[in-house]
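re: ur question from the group chat, yeah i did fold both. here u go
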Amino acid sequence: MTFGFAPSSAASTSTSADLSAASANPLARMLEPAEWAAAGIPLLRNPREVVSGLHSRHRPRPATAIVAVLDPDERLCASASFTRRPAPADGWMFRNTLLAQLRRVIPHDLRRRTPVRTAVLLYCREGDARWTEEDGAWMWGLRDACTLHGLRCGAYITLTRDGWQVLGEGRGGRRPNADSSPEPFGLSEAPPPLPRTGGAASEVLRRAAAR
């Protein structure tokens, strides 16, 4: 269901012009590490636990992105993984892809005055942990997708063969990494649920975290 008002012809013309200008300059749709650090992105209390949980659930390989929604206690509400298509890095396209995945796995929070849930993005890629323009495009896309879905923009995490790193924070570790086997869930004896889950699977994780 869609809510809102039909745009005027002038607004439509302006929007079309804006989109045309934006599509001609993908470099404008990325964030530098300093911009990301200055954006007030909330810090994860236990980033390794978040990374290990997503790694165990989705078993990412290079070019795999995982978007996850966390509640205020950093418990997983929903997550989705997908493979990045071979194309130039573009924050606008990344935004659209992330927004489509979020819409599939969890309702929006646009009716709330203040976002309660937080979306984080883990991207498994080749190369080392240093920031790249592709990372900057993912950052831009995550921030914009969160705004359009009524979520807080959370951490952007890279996963390479060297390990994982929360960009903009300087926190990271060697395991898990792009080559490591998934670690068992430390809070539950049950096997990891399937990717792109919500509802009952998330309830299993919530019960496990409460133990």
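okk and heres the other one u asked abt
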Amino acid sequence: MQEFIAFNEQRAEIYWWMSSLLSRELTQEDITEYHGGEMYTFLSGLGMTPELKQPVEAFRDALKKLESREDAQLELAADFCGLFLSTPKNGALPYASMYVGESGLLNDKPAQDMNKLMADYNIAQRKEFNEPADHIAVELDFMGNLIILANQQEDEKKAEDVMQAQHQFLETMLLNWLPAFSQACSARDKFGFYAAAVNLLLAFCKLDTAFLAGEEQ
């Protein structure tokens, strides 16, 4: 049981890390931490999984390029704005509604579905993050909380139900639009830092889905 809890905590941390990375521009302090030993160790651990080896290496290459980038923090902030705070034509907007909604507008059905899920599981969106509920950072934060919720169940059957809910959430609320979002990032992120990050996220979500599918068998 302790191994199950520890593994889930590691999974949640990865979702929360990506949620944070895609929620706001990185500060100079953040960038310094990304170049530190702790991040190197973390990425090395992720890269030991065969399915993540290539996307981890690509992200590490982007980090290495960032070290020699002039005005790195300002330029990366400009990349963030150009991708995620732009228009559908020029950027890669981080909202599910833009990829799988019916109207092509914000706050479409995916946002409504997310609001319902958060209410059902009593998992609130962070008040300071004033974005539609289908923003990638909100969905990833929710997934992290859903994982920890499984750890908090005293009954094994209830814990298994929450694990199944994670699988369903990945398949119906994340992987139904993440590939298109990743493609948009790759096409429009010239420097490549965020494109590499989202590609790593996509690879991890696919791996996590396979893990959860195995858990249900």
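fwiw on the second one: The two ends are 18 Å apart (CA to CA). The mean pLDDT is 96. idk if thats what u expected
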